[in-house]
Design goal:
This protein is an all-alpha fold and about 100 residues long. Helices cover about 85% and strands about 0% of the residues. The chain starts with a helix and ends with a helix.
Length: about 100
């Protein structure tokens, strides 16, 4: 039998007798567990913050593009209105309105 199996069987026999020696095991205190949990939460928040920044950048790109396109569209519409007025004036001159 392996050393581990012998060790396990020995522990099992002691457990049946109610005399388990917990001195070899590391049990965390409530404070240590809370500190570990706090560190995990901080790490998760940092990751979520990074993901949020990336998402904001991904959203900002189309918004900036839309803003630029909208500005160009408004300028084009203004130019189109001016051309229509010019055509109307020219037609009026030709037809002697």
């Amino acid at each position: 039998m392996s050393t581990f199996v012998l060790f396990f069987l020995g522990r099992l026999a002691k457990a049946r007798n109610g005399s388990i020696d917990d001195g070899r095991y590391a049990f965390f205190s409530r404070q240590e567990l809370l500190e570990q949990q706090g560190l995990l939460v901080e790490h998760e928040l940092a990751e979520m913050g990074e993901e949020l920044s990336v998402s904001r950048e991904e959203i900002a790109t189309p918004v900036i593009m839309w803003t630029g396109m909208r500005y160009q569209m408004l300028r084009s519409e203004k130019g189109l209105v001016q051309v229509r007025w010019q055509l109307a004036e020219d037609n009026c001159l030709l037809l002697k309105c």
